[in-house]
Specification:
Layout: H1 2-15, H2 25-28, E1 34-44, E2 49-57, H3 75-88, H4 100-112, H5 126-131, E3 133-138, E4 143-148
Antiparallel strand pairs: 1-2, 2-3, 3-4
Helix pairs in contact: 3-4
């Protein structure tokens, strides 16, 4: 009886807009809309400098996601496509569209990075960001390498 009353109260309050329904965690993570250059833990021995990497972001935060369902065209996807081409040998058109080719390439990169099970999903998020290699660079000599961020 107590459960019935609690459910009824929640429905009444929701009807007045007082109680909001819970949303999935993915819904709370914003879609990447650009990129930022972030320092990595990789040291360039020749130049005595920590390397940087361009990483997808949402308004400066790297806590964001990209997926085939996003149906957006933006620079965040272009950075990801460039990374997949240069670090994993794919030949994606760098057009900023997260299509089936980007989806398949990202799954391949996730597997190559050692992710397993549900983490190999073709969705870019924090787990993938921390696992895959990124094109790391130092502006002075325009050399680049592929390294994980951490």
């Amino acid at each position: 009886m107590k459960r019935v009353l609690t459910a009824a109260a929640a429905l009444i309050l929701a009807g007045f807009g007082i109680v909001a329904a819970a949303t999935p965690a993915a819904a709370a993570t914003p879609r990447c809309n650009s990129y930022v250059s972030v320092p990595t833990t990789h040291w360039d021995v020749l130049d005595q400098y920590y390397m940087s990497a361009k990483v997808p972001s949402y308004n400066g935060s790297t806590n964001c996601y990209l997926s085939q369902q996003s149906s957006v065209v933006n620079n965040a996807v272009k950075v990801l496509q460039t990374d997949l081409n240069r670090c994993y040998g794919y030949h994606l058109t760098v057009d900023g569209k997260f299509g089936s080719g980007t989806y398949s390439a990202l799954m391949g990169a996730q597997r190559s990075a050692g992710l397993t099970g549900g983490d190999v999903d073709g969705v870019y998020g924090s787990i993938t960001r921390d696992a895959i290699d990124w094109v790391t660079y130092k502006d002075v000599h325009q050399r680049d390498y592929c390294n994980p961020l951490l």
